[in-house]
Amino acid sequence: MFPTEVREVLHRLEAAGYEAYAVGGCVRDLLLGKTPDDYDMTTSARPEQVMALFDGFCIPTGLQHGTVTVRQGGKSFEVTTFRTEGPYEDGRHPSAVYFSQRLEEDLKRRDFTVNAMAMDVEGRLTDLFDGQSDLRRGIIRCVGEPKKRFEEDALRILRALRFAAALGFSVEEATGNAIRESRMGLQKIAAERIRVEMTKLLCGKNAGEILLAWPEVLGVFLPEILPCVGFDQCNRYHCYDVWEHTVRAVDAAPCDPILRWTMLLHDLAKPIVFTKDEQGNGHFYGHAQPGTEIARDILHRLRFDRRSAERIEQLVLWHDRQIPPTEKSVARALRIMGEEALRQLFAVKRADNLAQTPEVRQRQQEITELEKIMESLLAKEQCFSLRQLAVNGRDLMPLGLQGAAIGQMLQNLLDAVVDGTLDNDREVLLLWAEKRIAENKKA
Ligand code: ATP
Ligand code: MG
Predict the structure, then answer these.
(1) pTM score, whole prediction
(2) Residue from 26, 69, 85, 111 to probe ligand 1 pocket by mutation (most atoms less than 8 Å from CB)
(3) What confidence score (pLDDT) does residue 382 get?
């Protein structure tokens, strides 16, 4: 059942007289028939005893929490001593952590029944809270009294929703009621921890169902979504309110963090810019621009890395821009955005489109057309960036250009090549540049 490396770590601990188990997410995933991403282990050995046993092959990752990272067969495993936790006073962290000699105590502190099972090296399961039956029935249920567990650490509220989304499970009733009651506790949780869980939620196979069912919980840290809930678009292309459209667009996008976050954020300005014409049709003219600003705000607040934030903002800004199905316009988009971002934009457009009325969905064909054009442009190895242009700045100096004028000329040459006015050929480009310079002098 376990990979060799995991068996070796568990064996070694047992052979030295300690208890040792794989625990948490990996046990859950194994029972679900999935291959775990990583294996966490828990043991009765104290951290210093683990260190001694794996001398030279371990790192004291979080000694105060009892965690040692053990290297085995080129892989890393977190081995954590059985723990119990002191009282939670701030709704985020236990005031103290105590090491324990009993597996039971360690399992009791864990969040959900499906995450609170341990398995020894022989594959024998310890399941004190009916995790197996909840796994079978597809239920997320707190270990212990839900309200108390959420008051201890409010991040568990979001974790419950993320596991429900990722596993396609439903939230058990008492756990669900406690989520609603305790949701304001999420205000105290660090932005980074929220971002990590929210990203996993969004990338879950049942993200849409969870987003639709729990906006008031997510609204604690994303208040910008609340005006979208139930906001009638009064538009024949839209059969869903803004929130349901958003949720369906998230579901329709590939399970990729950038794309899923983009879909979540893409229409947040709609309620702000809404207008109605004389016929009673709703319009959202220019919503992408203020939407980008709202997105920027959220991404900053949740401490996204700059690269991801900028990409998501760019995709929100472009999400409803018309790109005519011509080589010229696709080439322009390719030059401005680059290949990776343009591919993502097409995925965004597809998802956005799939979340509208069935008649509009036929426009998928238009996106396919754009993609084809992009592929053929790329295949032809057309020149899209200055780097690929057949001349560079140094080539222009003998023509008498200097400084900013060189950059400007390169840009003009690139535009002409992208538009198909000029071939990307050194002689052709230099001749054209020379002519331009002569014309400018005359003028
Ligand atoms: P994933 O496969 O997404 O990593 P996971 O179950 O391994 O899922 P982690 O966040 O890696 O989730 O946490 C590992 C284990 O630690 C969980 O299975 C759970 O038993 C426990 N755990 C993590 N966070 C908490 C928490 N806030 N409160 C209680 N137990 C927690
Ligand atoms: Mg994990």
Answers:
(1) 0.87
(2) 111
(3) 53
